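Task card 7
Instruction: Convert sequence to structure tokens.
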Amino acid sequence: MTASGATATMTPSQLRSEDGASTEAAAEAVPRVFPLRAVADVGVILLLTVIGTVGLSTAFTDLGYVLAGVGGMVVGTAVALLCARYRVGALSTAAVSVVAYFLLGSAFAMPEQAILRVFPSLQSLAGLAVGAVFGWADLVTLRAPVSLPYYVNAVPYAACWLVTLVSVTLAVRWLSERRRSVWRASLLLLGPALIYLAGVLLGTDTPYYAAVRGIAFAVVALIWLGWRRVDGPRLAVAGRSQMLRRKLVGTGVIVVAAILIGGIGGSLLAPAPGQRFVLRKEVQPPVEPLDYPTPLAGFRIYTKDLADTPLFTVSGIRSGQTLRLATLDSYNGVIWSVAGANTATDASGAFRLVGRDIPTPPLLTAAGATTLSVKVLGYHDVWIPDTGYTTGFSFAGTPKADEQNVRYNATTGTAVLTTGLRKGQSYQLNEVDQKVPSDASLETVPTATLSLPPATDVPDVVRARADKIIGKANTPIDKLRTLEQNLKTKGFFSHGTASDQAPSRAGHGADRMAEMMTRSSMVGDQEQYASLFALMARSEGMPARVVMGFAPKNVKNGTATVTGDNVTAWVEVAFQGVGWIPFFPTPDNPDVPQDQVPKPQTEPQPQVRQPPRTPNHKDDLITPVQINDKHHDEGPPFVLPGWLIALGLSILIPAAIVFLPILVVGFLKRRRWERRRGARPDAAAAGAWDEMVDRLVELGFDPPQRVTRGVAAERMSATLPELGSGVAVLARDVDRAVWSGQDVEAARVDGAWTEVEQVVDAATNRVGRARRVLSRYRLASVRRWAGRVVMSAQDAAQAAAAKR
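Output:
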């Protein structure tokens, strides 16, 4: 026999009816009235959240984040207050808050993507979902101030919505019904404190009124905690008056101490702006440039296969101005490449996602501004051609999609588009050019002290020849000009094509550099001479890097069409306080002497093992560079359209939020039914009554508890006459099956469960559609557990009060 049959799980209150038939039920249906202290708690929570949110000011370009944060606070607070006032359960509160988040978030967080700036669209719904999950990562990898992507505003909106929803719910539901203490009140400060901490970590090196916000946050929190404490109920009137005076004096002391200690101590202990800890400085760059092939390795592709191919048209360029494609400062004995993202602070590998306000390079003497417009024709690569150091960029067509994929290195002035430039694409750059001073003004200027990636496996003959060429030159500019003039006057130019006079191997590895030094005549093009000059400068301890780009010809009215024949390379060396000065060591003379006879060289040979040389055939004047062009022939890989992804997210995420809890609760209810229905006959009969009680609880009724089944059936029949005699019949059959001491027939058990379905159907028809929908999210066992927890807490509070 089941013990549950003796005492059915009931509550003392009658079944709640919608027409207010019962006085007790009507009293329970009265909306909650919030005490004055709970209203004050909500005000303090909102004030502290605002103080914390203001700290994000340096990470955004406009005040749109303020509207998003305030909107999140309004939505979270309104949902928390309404659900608490009408006593909505926890699961229902969560469901309502999520719906409000998506329904109202478009107007607050991303009005530009909303319909009529108010109503949600597919793009705004997707932005609210994606921004709440991935916006944090974008925020710490963006160069502040942030203006891209659009969904980043969902970060302050979601944070303020969640914090106010939880904190306000605790304030009006949990804290207002318990004895006030400092530790309980402190729990409400966790959410605003996290917002404040997020403003510090997600900000920049320059804080936004850090001292003022810190003192204000501490003062408000301390005063509120002090006044939140409850005076003893047995204090006399005089005692309460004295307590009030002490509180006022203590409040004044806290304010003065916070201002003095916080202001003076903060000014002494606060780190310098460049030494503040912010997450964006600790997060690794999202782009690893080593994943892309170095463009200098494909130099001969331009001169051989693309010599007459129009690559792109440029407007706004001056005659003699060069276009920068990539800046290379790492040499490993085989190729010059872009340094890895983890190499060094001054390296070329620190590519980051940026907003429209691009930071100024650390070494730059500006000579003038240029607005460059480029239209891509036959060029296909990730490197973005520019003329100097970019201060702003925009893409025609779909700017948001392209700008979000741009990564920029402020040190080298190089930008990449991770998706690759494609035919027909247009973009505009605002550029600042590096001033090139005269050699006379650089006579007393030393080269800059920078931490660049090392150049390894450099042939010894290169170092020895550099020392010999420099000779008695003393200053850095004299040494560099001596090296430059020696290469230009003693070398010969050849791309190694059939039309050139002399063969010239492609590549710039250690063996090719040694060959340039050991043969009777130096022969090569910009690739070899720029590499050789940079290695010589590095061997003398000067910071040098190779730049590959284009030198447009036939510039007319600021417009030029760039072809593969315009490809070039040069070297830049950093001078202290001036910037990176260009050097062009490539000779113009193509007349290589015909009576070249290799002669023994007296220069020391390299001490490292050189890669084996590949013999050249007579009809093969150049060594082709192996570059993978399969992606050009096969076409771009299939990528889901952005609108389809946004549509899928906007449908799947709300659907999962709405239907996933229904599936989980439905599964638990099904298991409960199977466990009760499959028990032994007497337990199955008792389980039928328990199932009916649980189903009624989930519909929002309060069946009587701790009474017999007969009494409970009588009260339910009186409160809900629509249930008919089914409840009384069910109670009688279950009591007979449980207490008769006889074997229970299967037909009697089936009849009990049939009566349950009839009673539940009648109760379901009694309630409205909203309660029927909410019943799918409710689980009676959870509600009973929560009720027991609340009753235990109340009993403990009453016992503690009785002892006092």
